[in-house]
From TrEMBL:
The keyword Transferase applies. It comes from Acetatifactor muris. Residues 8-153 form the N-acetyltransferase domain. GO terms for molecular function: acyltransferase activity, transferring groups other than amino-acyl groups. This is Putative acyltransferase. PANTHER family: ACETYLTRANSFERASE, ACETYLTRANSFERASE (GNAT) FAMILY PROTEIN. Keywords: Acyltransferase, Transferase. The keyword Transferase applies. InterPro entries: Acyl_CoA_acyltransferase (IPR016181), GNAT_dom (IPR000182), N-acetyltrans/Recomb-assoc (IPR052564).
Length: 160
């Protein structure tokens, strides 16, 4: 195990309000350093409580917990890992990598490849994990700002 100093467990996220709180807190703390305000607002709207309630029917949404403390959240939709966020106070401690380990294992049980939409803050982690950039995407957001990101893929065995 890559992060042997802690044991992370996944719990089915049954509270969209808590998922939305985690996501909003992480976006507000990190994304303004990477994106213009219109793109940050786009992310906040994309992952608001109502959108998460709607996603429950299409995604398996999880809380990541360490010693009973929720440190983040992540979702699986088919062979895509989405909405992966670690609370700011738990970032840079290996929790995001461990959460990816667990989610990837689940996806690879059914699929030969994992797909993600990579935000700028997380892209370097995905590259280190063996993901390869597939496409570059750009969405015009409020105030004339743009949200730019890459779609990425990792095949079973980690060769991208």
């Amino acid at each position: 195990m890559r992060n042997a100093d802690f044991c992370m467990e996944l719990k089915q996220a049954e509270c969209p309000v808590k998922v939305a709180e985690i996501v909003e807190k992480a976006i507000r703390a990190v994304y303004p350093h990477y994106y213009p305000s219109g793109a940050v607002q786009f992310f906040l709207d994309l992952h608001n409580e109502q959108r998460i309630r709607e996603a429950v029917a299409r995604e398996d949404i999880y809380f990541a917990a360490v010693q009973g403390e929720i440190v983040g959240t992540g979702s699986i939709r088919g062979n895509e890992i989405c909405r992966l966020f670690i609370l700011p106070e738990y970032q840079a401690k290996g929790y995001g990598s461990r959460l990816m380990d667990l989610l990837e294992d689940m996806v690879f049980q059914q699929y030969q490849a994992v797909h993600i939409d990579a935000s700028f803050p997380a892209e370097s982690m995905y590259l280190k994990r063996g993901y390869r950039i597939k496409t570059y995407e750009k969405i015009k957001t409020g105030g004339g700002d743009y949200l730019c990101y890459h779609t990425m893929e990792k095949v079973a065995g980690g060769k991208g």
